[in-house]
Design brief:
There is one protein chain. The protein has 22 helices and ten strands. With about 450 residues, the protein is α+β, with helices and mostly antiparallel strands. It folds into four domains: about 260 residues, Lysozyme (Orthogonal Bundle), CATH 1.10.530; about 70 residues, no CATH class; about 30 residues, no CATH class; about 45 residues, LysM domain (Membrane-bound Lytic Murein Transglycosylase D, Chain A). The chain is elongated.
């Protein structure tokens, strides 16, 4: 599946909380995938012999380091962490009925019940992770509109926009121990299956827009398999095969909470963590968590690049820092935009885009020999023969009983041999034997050595 994206960024400020709105037109090719391989990303997580327990692991995205969240370019540039209300603010202790009531009030399609496991994750978000929640709330202004546009394009429940909270803590540079990458934590196989390009130069799993549309497509396919959103969410984490095995081991039940003990450990916590993420992203004020203040980001625009272009050329001529350029174009892994291979998208702030357009061809010419030169054709070096090399070659030839290269070769005349027989035996001709050995006529004798080459 290939998609072409026509994207216009419009940045709006709603109330006191700034946000960015993405207008995206998605044009799908007429040809759909003929086959869809929705096998496990990691079947080894549940091999069928595992002892059933109710232990859970916290999803990796929830364990994001504060330093990592604050080093992300958007956060570092446009967020101002509010330390007072997240560090010292009192977290009220609510009763069970309050949590049930609040979860039921969420305007969601996906079922979000309350239980002790869900409460455990709510406590994590409102307790030791409350400062991370503050940063996530602030950075959600950059990414949530993108997620909503992608989900809406596939007519999916908008509450799925909080999946990246538990997948990556809204860090587009997140990389899991298993090699999943980006906001939506795609493995390479699934990423390529859903149209994301992953090469040595490009990794579109890091592209917030393209990866969001790929994730929405994948979630739709998972829902089509199970017909239940909690099962689709669980299979997003551990693969459809593991969910099918859990259903089988639970006697065929398709209720997530019935198959819960038969799922891989991390997946047991995945749906409860998703419910808790929806809760905390809605009711953070009730727990005295303040979103990090967000400044309005600079407006951006895109251009298609059809020639090879290096980040250093853009930084030098377009008044943009290398860090900002990387943050706006995270899919390019080495700094090289391989437009010569196929047209590539380049995103720049509006002021930098104006400079890029005015620079014209000069931007491609700037340090091109140094930054872009590659050898399209090259000759293989030939060894230079020296007298010393020649002697070595000759000795090696004699050591094998024959000379190397164009050296001579001899044969011993046997009793009864004729020149014709010797020529045939050694793949040569009588006339050549005569010429090499100065023989006139056919006079040869047994035991005589004659040259045959």
């Amino acid at each position: 599946m290939k998609k072409q994206f026509k994207i216009l960024f419009a940045l709006l400020c709603v109330g006191a909380m700034p946000c960015s709105v993405v207008r995206a037109q998605v044009i799908d090719d007429d040809e759909e995938l003929e086959t869809l391989d929705l096998t496990d990303e990691d079947d080894s997580a549940d091999d069928g012999d595992e002892v059933v327990t109710t232990e859970i692991d916290i999803p990796a995205g929830m364990e994001a380091e504060m330093d990592s969240l604050l080093s992300e370019w958007n956060n570092k540039t446009y967020l101002i962490p509010e330390g007072d209300c997240t560090d010292t603010g009192v977290n009220p202790d609510f009763d069970r009925e309050t949590y049930i009531h609040r979860l039921q009030r969420l305007p969601n399609v996906i079922e979000m019940p309350y239980n002790d496991v869900v409460r455990h994750f709510i406590d994590q978000y409102t307790g030791r992770l409350r400062r991370s929640v503050s940063i996530i709330l602030g950075s959600s202004n950059f990414y949530t509109p993108i997620f909503e546009e992608a989900l809406e394009a596939y007519q999916l429940p908008l509450e799925l926009k909080y999946l990246p909270v538990i997948e990556s803590a809204l860090n587009p540079e997140a990389v899991s121990r298993a090699g999943a990458v980006g906001l939506w934590q795609f493995m390479i196989t699934t990423a390529k299956q859903y149209g994301l390009e992953v090469t040595s130069l490009i990794d579109e799993r890091r592209d917030p827009i393209k990866s969001s549309y790929a994730a929405a497509h994948y979630l739709k396919d998972l829902y089509d398999i199970f017909g239940d959103w909690t099962l689709a969410i669980a299979s997003y984490n551990c693969g459809p095969g593991n969910v099918r095995k859990a259903i089988s081991r639970a006697g065929g039940s398709k209720d997530y909470w019935q198959i819960y003990p038969y799922l891989p450990r991390e997946t047991r916590g995945y749906v409860p963590a998703f419910i808790a993420a929806n809760y905390i992203m809605t009711y953070y004020c009730e727990h005295n968590i303040c979103p990090a203040s967000a400044q309005l980001p600079a407006a951006t625009d895109t251009v298609m690049v059809d020639r090879n272009l290096h980040a250093d050329q853009i930084v030098a001529l377009c008044n943009i820092s290398a860090e900002a350029l990387k943050a706006l174009n995270p899919q390019y892994r080495t700094g090289l935009i391989p437009g010569f291979s196929h047209p590539c998208t380049l995103r720049l702030p509006n002021a930098s885009m104006t400079a890029f357009i005015e620079a014209g061809d000069s931007i491609y010419a700037y340090r091109a020999t140094e930054l872009l030169a590659t050898r399209a054709e090259i000759e293989v070096a030939q060894a230079q023969l020296t007298p010393q090399n020649t002697k070595i070659t000759s000795r090696r030839g004699r050591g094998r009983g024959r000379s190397a290269g164009r050296g001579s070769r001899s044969a011993t005349v046997r009793r009864g041999d004729t020149l014709s027989a010797i020529a045939k035996r050694n793949g040569t001709t009588v006339s050549k034997l005569r010429r090499l050995n100065g023989i006139r006529g056919n006079n040869i004798r047994a035991g005589q050595k004659i040259r045959v080459k």
